Structures are given as C-alpha cells and as structure tokens.
Amino acid sequence: MTSTPATTGLIHLTDREPAVSGAEMVSALVPPPQFDGATFESYRADDAYPSQQEAKELLQAFAAKQSAPAKKGGFFRRAEKTPPVKPGVYLDGGFGVGKTHLLAAIYHAMPARRKYFGSFIEYTALVGVLGYAKAVELFRGSDLLCIDEFELDDPGDTMVMTRLLGELVASGTRLAATSNTPPNALGEGRFAAQDFLREIQSMADSFRTIRIDGTDFRQRAIDGEAKVLSDDDYRAALKTASAGSVASDDVFADLVGHLARVHPSRFIRLIDGVGVIGLRDVQVLHDQSAALRLVAFVDRAYDAQIPIRATGVALNTVFSDEMLAGGYRKKYLRAVSRLVALTHS
Questions:
Q1: Range of the domain at 301
Q2: Quick one: which of 342, 334, 17 has its CA closest to 178?
Q3: Where does this protein have coiled-coil stretches (predicted)?
C-alpha cells in the first residue's frame, strides 16, 4: 500500500495515489468504526413507524437462529413438510432509517466463526482483484456475509454478485443486505433489467425482504441544508482542525477528476488519517460518472465520520435536477443526506 502518512498538516487528496492488496481488502471487511458498538439494544426504533421495531425483532430472531439439519422421514413415517427458510434477510427502506446500524447489529450478534461485513462496491472490487474463482474459494463456507448499500449499477455487477451469492448460499452461508431498492427492482431505470430478470429473481429468492419505514434521522436535528463557508471562514475552519491531517484541494473539480483515476475500493485509503476534508469552490455536477464516483467517496467519508468544510454551492445541491430525476435518484439523495450531516459535524 502506498499512501500519504497520517500526520497532522495540510495535504491534497489529488496528490495521493493509494494502492491496496487483496489481503488488505479482506481484512477491512468489518463494520465501519462508527458501528463498532452497534447492537439491537442501541437501535432506537421510532414509535411513529412500527415497522422499525418489527424489523428489529425479526432481525434479532435471524441473528439468533442456528442452522439445523433437515428432518428426514423413516420407512414408516412421512417427512415433515415445513416451509423453506430464506437464507438471507434484505433490509429495504429509505436512507437514514438505521439499516446499516441493524446490519452491523446482526454481524455483532451472530456468534459466527467466519463472518464478513462490507459495502457492495467492496465485494465487487475484491472479486475484481482476486478473480471470481478465488473469491468464491475465500467466502465459501463462511457463516455470514453482510452487504451494505446493495446497488447494481451495471449488468456485469448483476451477473457477478448473483452467481457469487448463489454459490455461497449453497455452501451454507447466510446473507444480510441493505438497500434503498427491493431486490426484485434492482437495476430498474439504470440498465435493461429485463435482460437479467432471471439472475435478479434468483438473487431475490434468497432473501426475505424486511421493509423499514421512517424519516432520515440525520435530518432531525439540522435544517436540511449543507453549511457553506466564506473563504475566510473556510481558512479558519481548516486552521483550527485538530484531529489528523487536513485535506484541502484548491479546486473541487480537480478532486472530482482525481476520483476517476482511483478505484472506488481505494477511496478509504485516499482519506486514511484525514481529520477534516476541505472542498473549495463546489460546483453542480452534470456528468453521471463523476457524480457516482462522488457518491462512493462520500460513503467512505461518512463511514469514517470525517467532517467536511466547503465553499461554493451548497453540497445538498451538488447533483443536478436531471440526475435527481433519474435511475440513481436514491443513491444521490442518500449522499446528500450524508453530505449535509458531515458539514454540520
């Protein structure tokens, strides 16, 4: 791995060209630091949305359940017919309702010998680094695979993940996933999902979908607008930052361009040791690829809980109206929610 040392001082993310090995990617498949202590008990269900408490109880039962051998009938006894138990749970709901917290609670609650927790993009990146066969070999026989932010952005990801999960389920692995989209609607509005209906449906059949309603908890204590600083306030905010290095790039567009040269799986290394991220002269994005890379970057910054300070347009307006009306709308809205929260942290 090559990255800038985590020392206090001003750095430029555009100067960083991180690399990460397959072994490092595997070792990173654990819940983000902010969810180290996530439990079912610490999940605060909103009484206004009963589905939150219902989901919590269903997931507690899922985490506690141990796989049992199937009952077989003898010569003079017919085998008992029981409905098949889904090997996975799929948390479907809007952003900010605590899905990742509950996913991490499952991970911590299950006394599994081999378990993994990662974002969808981390798993697909790992398959890219190791190759499909080695990835299957790595995960086969594992007790639990947690997949956060399950989003299919292209047909290739669809094929890889459905087949990988199919092989793992056959080996006894249990699955838990979160998304803003029901499993039978993945890919909708983004590519010709009907061409991959069989693969998508096969994946959906492995999950019991649990709906979680509610409002975005990140917006409950703030006004819904990202903080925008003047140039003087921006310089003062970065000067007074005390934790870790301060990352500031003079032009927002330069950072967005740099993200195109770094694989999203390495974004976590890009911000390694950073205590504050400074974004100067933020502009509205109109390029879909650049916007999706920024979403992935924001996800990693949010996982690491790194505050953001910015000038220019408000970060809650960084995605164009056309993008917000398209197939990636939910991904952009999730990123906006996280950006607003990070500018207030």
A1: 10-20+218-344
A2: 334
A3: none
Are 300 and 335 in contact, with CB atoms under 8 Å apart?
Answer: no
- Determine the Cα–Cα distance for residues 270 and 229; give it in Å rounded to an integer: 24
Cβ atoms of 312 and 280 closer than 8 Å:
yes
H or E segment to which residue 201 belongs: helix 197-204
Residue type at 8?
T
Report the predicted TM-score, pTM, of the whole model to 2 decimal places. 0.76
In Å, how far from its chain's centre is CA 194? Answer: 25
Please say whether the dihedral angle defined by the alpha carbons of residues 264, 265, 270 and 274, taken in this order, is positive or negative.
positive
Q: Which residue has the tokens 């970065």?
A: 238
Contact yes or no for 69/82 (Cβ under 8 A): no
Counted domains in the chain: 2
Can you tell me the mean pLDDT for 41-60? 94
Q: 168: helix, coil or strand?
A: helix
Are 158 and 60 part of one and the same domain? yes
Instruction: Answer whether 255's CB lies under 8 Å from 277's CB.
Output: no
Q: Do both 152 and 265 map to the same domain?
A: no
How many residues would you count in the chain?
345
Task: Evaluate whether residue 166 is within a structural domain.
Answer: yes
Q: pLDDT tens for residues 116-163?
A: 999 888 898 899 889 999 999 999 999 999 999 887 666 677 778 888
Q: Can you tell me whether residue 144 is helix, strand or coil?
A: strand
DSSP 280-339: EEE--B--HHHHHHHHHHHHHHHHTT--EEEEES-GGG-B-HHHHTSTTHHHHHHHHHHH
| C-alpha–C-alpha distance, residues 131 and 125, integer Å | 10
> What CATH number does the domain containing 197 carry?
3.40.50.300
Instruction: Classify residue 40 by its DSSP letter.
Output: S
In a domain, 41, yes or no: no
